[in-house]
Amino acid sequence: MSLALRPYQLEAISAIESSQASRQLVVLPTGSSKTVVLRAHLPPAGPRSRPTARS
User: What DSSP line would sit under the chain, residue for residue?
Assistant: First the structure.
């Protein structure tokens, strides 16, 4: 499912992508879908792998 991002969410993603910092902090008000912003910024996840038992 794909959600249409709001202008302020697109602005947050643009700020993250243009930053030269190795770590970013996104500050948005309650209810502004910070998780949606994060998911839109992250690359698609690959297949899930199961942890292997250690010997």
Answer: ---PPPHHHHHHHHHHHH---SS------TTS-HHHHHHHHSPPP----PPPPP-
Write down the pTM of the prediction: 0.66
Torsion on CA atoms 3, 17, 11, 27, rounded to nearest 10: 90
Instruction: Tell me the pLDDT of the chain (55 aa) as tens digits.
Output: 567 899 999 999 899 889 888 888 888 899 888 888 888 888 777 777 777 777 6
Dihedral angle sign, alpha carbons of residues 8, 10, 15, 16: positive
Q: Please tell me the distance from the alpha carbon of residue 37 to that of residue 8, in angstroms, as a whole number.
A: 10
Q: How far apart are CA 28 and CA 37, in angstroms?
A: 10
